[in-house]
Amino acid sequence: VQLVESGGGLVQPGGSLRLSCAASGFTFSSAVVRWFRQAPGKKREWVALITSSGGYKNFADSVKGRFTISRDNSKNTVYLQMNSLKPEDTAVYYCNAMDLWGKGTLVTVSS
User: Fold this and answer.
1) pLDDT 10s digits, 11-33
2) CA nearest neighbour of 21 among 58, 48, 45, 43
């Protein structure tokens, strides 16, 4: 039973990245999935969520209009598409479902 994030990396301001959260060992298709992030020296903050069917999505104000979230239940995967990235988006990004957390993937936005 686990969640594994991938897709992080170094990107210039204004660039894009797509993060993936791959699930295994549980009924992923019935789970609400959330993305969080934690910047150095700061508390973990919620970024986005998607319901089990993908019919409802919500975003933190800080990323609204720049990030989108989607899921492919046939692949047990949730995606976070991040566009127009800013230096303040630099953080470790975690996905969460039920009481499970991944180990995170680092996103660094810097020129």
Assistant:
1) 999 999 999 999 988 888 899 99
2) 48
